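The instructor's notes for this session suggest beginning with a concrete chain rather than abstract definitions. Hand out the sequence below and ask the class to guess, before any prediction is shown, which regions might be ordered.
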Amino acid sequence: MNPYQSLPSRSFWRTAVAEPAWADIDGLWTPKFAIGQDDVLLTAGSCFARHIGRALRDRGMNWRDTEPAPPGLTPEQRRDRHFGVFSFRTGNIYTAAVLRQWFAWSLGAEEPPREVWHDGDRFHDPCRPAVEPAGYASAEELFAARAATLAAVRAGLAEADCLIFTLGLTEAWRDRDAGPVHPVCPGTVRGTFDPERHVFHNFAFDEVRRDLTAALELARSVNPGLKVLLTVSPVPLTATATRGHALTATTYSKSVLRAVAGQLAAEHGHVDYFPSYELVTGAPFRGVFFEPNLRTVTPEGVAFVMDRFFGALEGRRAAPVSPPATDRSPAHPTAGEDFWCDDAVLDYYSPR
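After discussion, reveal the predicted structure:
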């Protein structure tokens, strides 16, 4: 006997991947810990994370919106102001460094920056430039709104049973003089780019691991029983500031994030990894879950991922699915999903 003779069929590429129909591929995730119907669940991360929160809510899970919209707003106004998108009204959190910042600010470990961005007579928050599209009437109003979000983050972490965080990018921009890491490049969504001040940084494995570890330690400092489920967004980079090819830059970014998530899951009993990235980008799926832009995940792709998520939690096989449409002509709908991805604005700057 050798070790391979006792392995299950899912451990072999031929029997687990090559021979089954792609729609029948299942069993990629064995949950490390239970997630119950009444457990308080938080979601945060890149734009793909919003699908997870919505699916949890629609399934009747106890997904927590820590900062509900005030009464009187229309659905469009709630959407534009990012109410009910993630558990925290922070906007998209693409990097582990930005997650660490939000947790450190909310728990008093660090002071949030006092900088504001001006657009005419309106004030915008550099820490979440897309959250209030019309801006604020004053800096005081901006800081009060941010303080409310920090309080909501703090309260959410204290009462949650599980945090589900979706890692998105390794590329980021930060202030040269030990300033904060920006959620997006200044001068794209909002603000003005200053080449003497704003510095590009592509986080390496050790840096992502350091920041994510610190973020989770901060969260568990107020809630020692908090469990963490990590995922990696299957959405590729809209653009890379490395001046390299977008495809190889995406491979680097996702590889680092996937490796860090796997490492932390292997090291800690309270950390697990769910393979949403593999379920969309894996070779057997042949890209059928992407819209024609090869970036936006289709509704069928989201449903495929989430059915495998709930199937694993419930101890059942995922429901059978029909092959999605593979028409990649420009007329094929894109469902407007890029509305939620701040970095999608970068496509505006590409040569035509």
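Then share the key points. Residues 32-111+151-316+334-346 form a domain with the Rossmann fold fold (CATH 3.40.50.1110). The longest strand covers residues 162-167.
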